[in-house]
Specification:
alpha+beta, five-stranded mixed β-sheet, 3 domains, 400 residues, elongated, 5 strands, Heat Shock Protein 90
């Protein structure tokens, strides 16, 4: 440290206040290195005890379950060490995917835990940390009293070795594991979306076409009774006319419901015709431009169609726009959509217009969703989807 505040320079002016010579990052690294030894000792004792006892008892019925439980504990140690590295070393590491549980019974779950690579790598990390903890603790403690001027350089070098060890053994093992973690999160979005769609279809059928068909059956039944009684008067004719109107309304509602599930024009003629059809129903004039040399997979077409459809509904209801445009094109292995309007703007992912839901649903299939909507407009929404050729058999859930 510098001299005390009461000291003065040769010119009689007081020296600046005393302060530590090292920055916050250096002190965090020193703290990390000093606690390495006690934490490494605890981890080493845990891993050696659990693994030794578990392996030694494999000839009994409790050995393998004990070993599996020990590996789960090693996972928890790894999580703690990642948190410590984030706090003191600034190392940002993704959490590995959760241990996947199989539904085939106890033995399959046991086997899944025993072959867990994350648990074994965490156990290896805890095992080799003891000698390293002794080295870092001794060198850092000695440097605090003997090598103070060069301690920041020593701490940085030792901390960099720790960073490499954490990244090498406690990071997700590969891109596949990180992808599994993402898919586990996205799966919940897809399941929730599918459940919501089923509830919507059930509600539309119950409150719409089903109710009309019930009324139609009742009306035709009354008309039949009157005809059998010989009362073929104007009242019966009016009842038949009303039933005819109910039939037409029920058919229209069923057509609208079918269009909401998957429009026939999309299946028969592709995105160009389907988007032109949905644009014609928008309350704002919409210019549609598509540039697709071939048709993408049916699931990708469905996602693109319903994304544009919901965005155009938002424009009709909320934007106050006078014109809008839809552009669709392919860029390498991506299908791009852009919906623009000259409305009042202010749209956002948490604005209550369904934008957040669209972003989550596109994210669930490896898509992107970007909203640019300053106050006063205009609004531009860009969406990207993975391109899959129509001949590919890989299935993608088409969330709405």
């Amino acid at each position: 440290m510098t001299q005390t505040p009461s000291s003065t320079m040769s010119g009689g002016e007081p020296l600046p206040p005393a302060r530590f010579a090292y920055g916050a990052h250096t002190w965090k690294e020193i703290a990390h290195l000093l606690v390495n030894l006690p934490l490494a000792l605890l981890g080493f004792v845990y891993v050696v005890t659990v693994l030794t006892v578990g392996v030694g008892l494999t000839v009994t019925v409790v050995g393998l379950p004990l070993l599996a439980t020990g590996l789960l504990g090693a996972r928890m140690l790894g999580r703690f060490e990642r948190a410590r590295a984030r706090a003191l070393l600034g190392v940002r590491i993704d959490e590995p995917s959760r241990l996947r549980r199989h539904g085939g019974g106890f033995f399959q779950r046991l086997w899944s835990a025993l072959k867990d690579p994350v648990g074994w790598r965490s156990a290896l990390y805890a095992f080799i940390r003891l000698p390293w903890g002794v080295v870092t603790f001794g060198v850092t403690l000695c440097s605090l009293f003997v090598l103070w001027p060069v301690l920041p350089f020593i701490a940085r070098g030792l901390a960099n070795a720790d960073r490499a060890m954490v990244r090498g053994l406690l990071s997700p093992s590969d891109e596949l594991e990180r992808r599994i973690a993402e898919l586990e999160s996205d799966r919940g979005v897809v399941v929730d979306t599918a459940a919501a769609d089923l509830r919507r279809i059930e509600r539309d059928l119950h409150d719409g076409a089903q109710a009309r068909l019930v009324n139609l059956a009742m009306g035709l039944g009354l008309a039949k009774e009157k005809l059998l009684e010989g009362q073929a008067d104007d009242h019966v004719a009016a009842m038949v006319e009303e039933a005819h109107g109910e039939v037409k309304l029920a058919l229209q509602e069923l057509r609208d419901l079918a269009r909401g599930i998957h429009p026939a024009v999309l299946t028969d003629r592709g995105l160009d015709a389907a988007l032109s059809s949905v644009a014609s129903r928008c309350t704002v004039p919409v210019r549609v431009t598509t540039d697709l040399p071939t048709r993408p997979a049916a699931a990708i077409e469905g996602i693109a169609y319903f994304t544009v459809s919901e965005l155009l509904q938002n424009i009709s209801k909320h934007s106050g726009a006078r014109s809008a445009a839809v552009e669709v094109w392919r860029s390498e292995d991506r299908l791009l959509l852009q919906v623009w309007d000259d409305g009042r703007g202010g749209a956002s992912l948490d604005g209550g217009t369904g934008m957040k839901g669209l972003a989550e649903r596109l994210g669930a299939v490896d898509g992107l969703f970007v909203v640019d909507s300053p106050q006063g407009g205009p609004t531009t929404v860009t969406a990207e989807l993975p391109w899959r050729d129509r001949t590919e058999t890989a299935s993608v859930t088409a969330p709405r």
